[in-house]
Every structure is written in C-alpha cells, then in structure tokens.
Amino acid sequence: MELKDLRIFVTLAYEENTTKTAEVLNYVQSNITARIKKLEEEFQTPLFYRHSKGMTLTPKGRQLLDYAEQIFYLIDETRHALMDDELPFGHLRIGTNETTASSKLPQLLASYSKKYPDVELSLRVERTAFLLEDLFNYQLDGAFMVGPIEHPDLVSTPVFTEKLVLFSSEPIQVHDVRDKTLLTRPNDLYRERLESWLEDEGIYPKRIMEFNTMESILNCVNAGLGFSIAPISLVDSHKFDRPVSIYGIPESHANVQMIFVHRKEQHLDSALQKFVTLTKRELD
C-alpha cells in the first residue's frame, strides 16, 4: 500500500465521486478507479459501494478511513515535531460550541490570524459530545468546552468563566417564569443549569419550546415569544431590536467554567502552543 493510494482513497471517501476526486487531485479518472481497485485487491474486500449517484464507503471502507486519517495525522505530527520553529505554520483545527463561537472567538481568531498568517485556521461548531468524538478521531487539534471534562487521554486548560443569565424582551423576575415559555435547545448544558435552579425554587416554566440553534432562540426572544438562558457575553453581543430584560441567577448555578481541551499524547507544535497562549491572554 502506497501513501498516494491512501490519499486517493481518503479524498474519494469524502467526495463520493471519481470525477470530483480526479479534479481535486489533478489525476485522470481512470487512475482513480485503478488505484481504488488495487487497494481493494490488496485488502481483499470491497471498500466502496458503487451506485448511480457515485460511491459510498462500505463498513470495511469506513474502518480503513479511520486508520487512514490517523496515519496522515501522525505524518503531520512527525513533520511538525521535526521541523517546528518559533514561527507557526500549517493547519490548526479548533472546535467550539455555538455560544462561544458567537461571543468570544471572533476577536480571538482575528487576532491569531493577523499575528500568525501562515497558519490555516478552521473552526467546527458542534455540541460537546461531537467535539470529543472529533478529538479522539484526530479531526480536531483542540476544542473549547464547558468544564469539567475528565478523561485520562485529554488535557484541559481553564480559559475563562461565563456567567449565565435569564433574558427576555419583557421584564422578567424568577417568579415570572411560571407564566412564560422557555426557549431552549435539546440536551443543552445551560438548560440543565436552569432546570436545576428552578427545581430548587419549586418553579417551572409554563411551556418549553426547543430549537436547533442559539441564533433561532435569540431571534425568538427578540420577537417576544419567551425567555431563555445564555452567557451574559452572548446576550450583550447580540443586536436586539428592542431592549432586553436580564435577570441574574445564583452564582452556584450561573458560573460556567470554559476549558480548552487537547489530546494528551499530542505534540504541541508552535501553532497550537501560540493559540493556547493567546487564548489565555485574551479570554481570561
């Protein structure tokens, strides 16, 4: 098996089309087909299902993709470890949740890109469970998450503390919750904090409406549909059409520690080191 064949396989796994793969890699299409056939003969198993819309991975193909991504990650790690210097370069893949991406990261990413222009930054916005999966699958170099995260294979660095608040387009106090609609997301960590506090108070919202994104919730609060809970930094940074009423909740439920997480065995090249240093300086 040659690395060139493995690179063709990975590209085809994502493109799911030999024509597009040939364009991406600047190969002729027949070469793509021949290389994939060679891999399948070598492993003695089909790696792709062929159908009218293109090609999709078989279970064995997905297994090979996992290994291939780790192989190319380790090649990059080796290159960085041997060639790394004080001037960062290469590709840095960062993950985060939606609220941090909206309120805290724009200025940080802009500062980093201006300071280290040879680093290609990419940002993935997802829930914590998916970010952890991407870390373990070598698809992210690091991620911002709500702490604590305790895992023997991960290193967590506290970076800043968020303060959660209730917010509504109408005046709101804790007892008003009984007559209002809570706008939230499924499996949301902030919602868990809110429900824990309201349970202590013996108070429950009139109804609950779930949305897929925080942006939808902010817009619906702005329209007067109900109230929600979010970090004060996000509420302050959003442009509402009308004044928004903010209610602070007890510190035991309000304070959220944000951490930056990376794999323990990972070589911290200068690109990631500089990112962590800048993060602690600008967000702390």
Automatic annotation (TrEMBL):
<dbReference type="Pfam" id="PF03466">
    <property type="entry name" value="LysR_substrate"/>
</dbReference>
<dbReference type="GO" id="GO:0003677">
    <property type="term" value="F:DNA binding"/>
</dbReference>
<dbReference type="Pfam" id="PF00126">
    <property type="entry name" value="HTH_1"/>
</dbReference>
<comment type="similarity">
    <text>Belongs to the LysR transcriptional regulatory family.</text>
</comment>
<dbReference type="InterPro" id="IPR005119">
    <property type="entry name" value="LysR_subst-bd"/>
</dbReference>
<dbReference type="InterPro" id="IPR000847">
    <property type="entry name" value="LysR_HTH_N"/>
</dbReference>
<keyword id="KW-0805">Transcription regulation</keyword>
<keyword id="KW-0804">Transcription</keyword>
<feature type="domain" description="HTH lysR-type">
    <location>
        <begin position="1"/>
        <end position="58"/>
    </location>
</feature>
<keyword id="KW-0238">DNA-binding</keyword>
<dbReference type="InterPro" id="IPR036390">
    <property type="entry name" value="WH_DNA-bd_sf"/>
</dbReference>
<protein>
    <submittedName>
        <fullName>DNA-binding transcriptional LysR family regulator</fullName>
    </submittedName>
</protein>
<dbReference type="InterPro" id="IPR036388">
    <property type="entry name" value="WH-like_DNA-bd_sf"/>
</dbReference>
